[in-house]
Amino acid sequence: MYNSIGIRHEDKYLLERRAPLTPRQVDRLIKEYHLQIIVQQSEKRIFSDDAYREAGAIVATDLRAADIIIGIKEIPDHLFEKNKTYLLFSHVCKGQKHNMFMLRHMMELGCTLIDYEKVTDDQGKRLIFFGRYAGLAGMINSLWALGQRLKGEGLMTPFARIRQTHEYASLAEARNEISEVGKEIAQYGLPETLHPLVIAFMGYGNVSQGAQEICSLLPTEEVPADRLKYTLEHNHIPSNILIKTVFREEDMIEPVKQGEEFDLYDYYRHPEHYRSKFEDYLPFINVLINGAYWDTHYPRHVTKDALERLFQSGHPSIKVIGDISCDPNGSIECTHAGTVIDKPVFIYDPLSRKYTMGLEGNGLAVMAVDILPSELPYESSNGFADVLVNYIQPLAAADFSLPFEQLQIPTALRRGVILYKGQLTLNFEYLKQHLF
Question: Which of 99, 309, 310, 360 is deepest in the core (most CB within 10 A)?
Answer without folding.
Answer: 310
